[in-house]
Amino acid sequence: AAQYTLQGFRQQAASLLEQVDVLVTPTAATCYTIDQVQADPMALNARLGYYTNFMNLLDLAAVAVPTGFLPSGVGFGLTLFQRALSDKYLLSMAGALQHH
Question: 3-class SS at 5?
Fold first, then answer.
């Protein structure tokens, strides 16, 4: 039953993605310090995929792009995603974003 539900979500995502060039999410919900990760690595790792875990489940192509730095000096990035096998297109979009 879960596989049928997942397949339904994949079909819905494919239909929606036909209507856009690319979708963008933050790559990670936040950035952690080394001390924070060492104190609770499993919980923090689970939180890092908040915006991106669904991309694997829905068989989407994605590329993470470093885009700048937070005031704390920690790097920040965006993830561009689209239908499966759109890697070449996503890489060209990522390159344009990175050089803008």
Answer: helix
How many domains does the chain contain in total? 1
Range of the domain at 18: 2-98
pTM, 2 dp: 0.84
pLDDT tens per residue across span 24-75 = 999 988 888 889 999 999 999 888 889 999 999 999 999 999 998 888 888 8
Spatial separation of the C-alpha atoms in residues 62 and 1, rounded to whole Å = 27
DSSP result, 34-80: HHHHHHSHHHHHHHHTTTTHHHHHTT-EEEEEEEEE-TTS-EEEEEE
